[in-house]
Amino acid sequence: MDGQSDRAGPLLNTDNQRLLLQTAQALLRANDTGGFIKPGPAQYPHQWNWDSAFAALGLAYFDMARARAEVRSLLRAQWRDGMVPHIVYPTGPSDYFPPPAFWQTERSAAAGPLPSSGLTQPPILTTVVRQMHGLAAEDPAGLDFLREVYPRLLAWHRWLHTARDPEGSGLVAIVHPWESGMDDSPRWQPVLAAIEPAPSLTFTRRDRVHVAADERPVEEDYRRFIHLITLFRSWAYDPQALYERSPFLVQDAAFNAILHQADHDLLALAHLLGEDTRPIEQWISRTRSAFARLWDEADGTYYDYDLRGGRRLRVNTIAGLVPLFAGLPEPAQAERLLREHLLHPGRFAPDGGTRFWVPSCAKDQPGWDPRRYWRGPVWLNTNWLVLRGLERYGYAQEARAVADHSLELVRRSGFREYYDPRDGSGAGSLAFTWSAALTLDLLHRPPGTTVEW
Ligand code: GLC
């Protein structure tokens, strides 16, 4: 790619970092099926929505054509109503549960052309597409690519702002924990507790074949996840029915923040392409004012809102820090997020017991479990969201510390799915795509690097 060496930041100057960069690139190549990049070679053999977006970001630094192909391949699975599904099965079933047939998406008239799930995931894709364009602004194919994908991105955003926010409140709802991308986060516990688990023994949990059971969601919750899907199937995935009847209906602070940033990026693309910007401006201003409702003044963080229960879900997790990524907190709120949470040794900061930033759940929460999935381990994608947010507020030193810890984790333990914040050991899937892809972004664009677009 043109100008690659010019863009390389200071972190690329040592042999170790060069090696890390080469290993990360090789991992993306190894997880490439040709048509799409798998999140992990054994545990995740299909295409996942935000995993593919992160993969495209990593690919953009060394193979822009392949990065574009990744974006296209995900958008190919888009439903007729605009939804972009959270799992796509372009190559058919595997030993992964749930298999494509489980979803019964053919019941929906809106289903897309490829076998897929009937849920969505955080829309980081538009942000990635904009960043990709920034890396290839001088490439004439860049604008053609934007023209090609823009209508699909717009349709997805529109779907989110209407099907998932029919009253135009400014905050979209998710209907299943899997839509948050943080599947078994303790923040869902108060809602899940009231949901009936599906009967046991009707399915085999393949997620436990490749990864130790104590690093995966607990059985009861998994059966609740399945119960929700059986309801959605019976309602033919009709968005109105899901919104009106799903027992899980939550305004997720992290999802809405990611969408808000993506709306800003969509707006920038609309300006570049000379497209109508008005609907996007309206989404942006609505979300900005509605988002304040998720702020908890007593605790100094953001919490999700349970629309069914009519209550704030006061569980302190990394999701509360993600709004920094979208520039949503006022400066005084950002300062509280920093002082009372990120830098608080009893919550997210290293304290001797934990040594790495940023655990996915605050350490003082009842759900804290440092090796189990979204209940404590460090994930590279949430670290990335938080450090890019810190950077934007001028907390350069803290952004740098989170980036350094992220790179230290991959250096010690390889590109794992998640890491134990106590000793930095890896857990979950091996050879995990987004850990490699975001390492590439951090190496090429260390915090503090001027962004050129
Ligand atoms: C898990 C994660 C989700 C991710 C998927 C594939 O379900 O919770 O965020 O997209 O695995 O890596």
Protein architecture, described:
The protein starts with a helix and ends in a 9-residue tail after the last helix. It contains 18 helices and 9 strands. Helices cover 46% and strands 4% of the residues. A 3-stranded antiparallel β-sheet has the order 3-6-7, with helices on one face. The radius of gyration is 20 Å and the shape is globular. Residues 1-10 have low confidence and may be disordered. A hairpin with a 4-residue loop joins strand 6 and strand 7. By secondary structure, the protein is mainly α. Helix 2 (15-30) runs antiparallel to helix 18, helix 3 (49-59) runs parallel beside helix 18 and helix 4 (64-75) runs parallel beside helix 7. The structure holds alpha-D-glucopyranose. Residues 39, 44, 48, 50-51, 181, 183 line the site of alpha-D-glucopyranose.
Tally of extended strands?
9
Beta-strand percent range: under 5%
> What string gives the helices and strands in order?
HHEHHEHHHHHHHHEHHEEEEHHHEEH
Bound molecules: alpha-D-glucopyranose
Helix fraction, binned, reads 40-55%
| Poorly predicted parts | 1-10
Radius of gyration: 20 Å
Structural class: mainly alpha
Number of helices: 18
